[in-house]
Protein: Probable nicotinate-nucleotide adenylyltransferase
Amino acid sequence: MPNKSPTRTLHALFGGTFDPIHYGHLKPVEALAQEVGLQQIILLPNNVPPHRPQPEANAQQRLKMVELAIAGNPLFSVDSRELLRDSPSFTVDTLELLRKERGAKQPLAFIIGQDSLLSLHKWHRWESLLEMCHLLVCARPGYAQTLDTAELQQWLEAHQVLDPQLLSTRPHGAIYLANTPLLNISATDIRQRRHNGENCDDLLPRAVQRYIELQGLYRG
Structure:
């Protein structure tokens, strides 16, 4: 029998502002879990996102919406550590902490969308990300399939794996481009619909919608 690399359970993290959390977040990563064989996805709500406007909902409201969205779904859990910071939420800093907590051998993955992959070279210390985790990339409608420069595309291809089972045999360093469903839903659109007094029930879980209504979020 040939020797095989040991397989460990792949831990996956999914960060976002979640202002609000919606089906465009949840359904693709549920499909990703089926495709890759993930047993749990840890949601990481951002506190002060460095690259985008400040959230309309406050940290406590966004955390509550995440908790309501995943209630009763054993695939998901939530890690609120970034919401406790007063400084910007840099992904690489959080991944460094998680890597220390989980040890050098634990396979660890960070889930992003195709839009984030295209702008990854603008992230804080982006070159260090693959030293701490794998990247799982969900498809997003309307975004380019190749990176901006030949150098960046070569970086992607050098780290890309086609077999998701390989992700559990190494702790970090690989990129997997997933064949997840393309859902054209954005938090920006939901907030705009709320501002316009339009119904959003088809875009996010009903429990989240009820909370938004009770809190009077995204009005006027």
